[in-house]
Amino acid sequence: MLKQKILSMLIAACLASTGCARTQGRDKESAKEKKQTVMKSKEEWKQELDPEVYHIMWEGGTERAFTGKYWSHKGDGLYLCASCKAPLFDSKTKFKSGSGWPSFWQPIDSNAIDLILDKSFGMIREEVVCAKCGGHLGHVFNDGPEPTGLRYCINSASLEFKSR
Question: Pick the catalytic residue: 81, 84, 130, 153?
Fold first, then answer.
């Protein structure tokens, strides 16, 4: 009886620490409320956006590596949020990471994005969302180039490009 109770407690603790669902271990709603100025329902976004863009930005999907339109893009300009068109990244901070997704070493402005703790899929990482609308962009990692040492790994479907 005691072994069963201990085993149950260990399983519960493990599930709580690694995250079972995409939203567990994150406080997405409070992070979005800090700066979010574009407020639409998921149904409104679904009507406005391409199905792939909607899936990635509002259901937390991820495009396959090396398939997105911007992973090897070299244009000079700004990358905007595909949902609300807020400026997110400057092409001057884009670099070839080899990951298969567009990678940037910093956002255009620290207020352009929000970072949210993501404990899904047994990993601990930081999700990157648009500060203006709350749409999912990708994740940030500590293996990027100087001067920041960061790699903002962003889904192409979450972005639109505007040439200078």
Answer: 153
